[in-house]
Amino acid sequence: MKTNLANILKEALKLPPEARAAIAGSLIESLDQTVDADAEAAWEAEIERRVRELDASSIPLVGWAEARRAILGR
User: Fold this and answer.
1) Where do the structural domains in the chain lie, given as residue ranges?
2) Own/partner pairs for 51-57, CB < 8 Å, 24+ apart?
3) Can you give the pTM of this predicted structure?
4) How many angstroms separate the CA atoms of 53 and 61, rounded?
5) Spacing of C-alpha 68 from chain mean position
6) DSSP 13-48
7) In whole angstroms, what is the distance from residue 55 CA to residue 47 CA?
């Protein structure tokens, strides 16, 4: 089984970043056995709020490189 897992990981790492992210997300979601309905509703409301802000252009956008520098404190 350990060899199979190593092979799966080796093959997965060959995938493009978007595919790897999708797989990682699916694996993480599979760990959640219970769903907190209140948390789900709160996240949906937050996402809708952020999308409205983006659509209204009421918030400044920054590129990933700039955001990453800010996150890492550079």
Assistant:
1) 1-33, 35-74
2) none
3) 0.44
4) 11
5) 15
6) TTS-HHHHHHHHHHHHHHH--S--HHHHHHHHHHHH
7) 12
Tens-digit pLDDT profile for residues 3-55: 899 999 999 999 999 999 999 999 998 997 887 889 989 999 999 999 999 99
Fill in the DSSP letter of residue 56.
T
Which pair of structure tokens corresponds to residue 11?
């093959």
What is the spatial distance between Cα 65 and Cα 4, in angstroms, rounded to a whole number? 36
- At residue 16, the pLDDT reads 95
State yes or no: pLDDT of 74 exceeds 80: no
Please, what sign has the CA dihedral across residues 56, 72, 29, 63?
Answer: positive
Dist. CA 51–CA 57, nearest whole Å: 10
